[in-house]
Amino acid sequence: MARRLSYSARYAQSAEKLYQAQSIKQYWDDMMAGFQMISPHCEVDSFVSDETGIRVVLKQTIGRDQLPALAQTVMKKDMVITREETLGPFDPDNTKGTYNASIPAGPGSLNGWQELFPTENGGCTIRRTSEAKVFVPFVNGKLEQMILINLVDLFRAEAEYAKDWVDKNL
């Protein structure tokens, strides 16, 4: 049975400004450069921003020795994560998108939905709902919960990054 978790990041910047940042490849390149402090192999694999929206594919390698003990029981090699994010064309009321992550020979799946919408104070919120499913008997529930908790930590770090990047670059 899959587990779900929602996370909302609130920004002082407008939804249009945050969307504008994410529609610039340098935003993603800079984010991957920041991840290299934790994992030396991070890159933007592909990036498209046009009238249909934004689509970015990120690749990150995490050394097996950096994984929690529970994850090491399942992953016998370094973990290569491919993450794809999309946002549709900008909608000032609610821009919708998706994301997913895959690991070659990984024992599960991670999918999610995201919404970017304005808040009353002139800022905006990105709400992400993630669904993790692991196909390993006995440890599946613990691994799903661990994935979702680590994902929230990632989203928090990315929200701080986004705030800083927009302030410095737009």
Automatic annotation (TrEMBL):
Superkingdom, natural source: Bacteria
The protein, known as: DUF2505 domain-containing protein
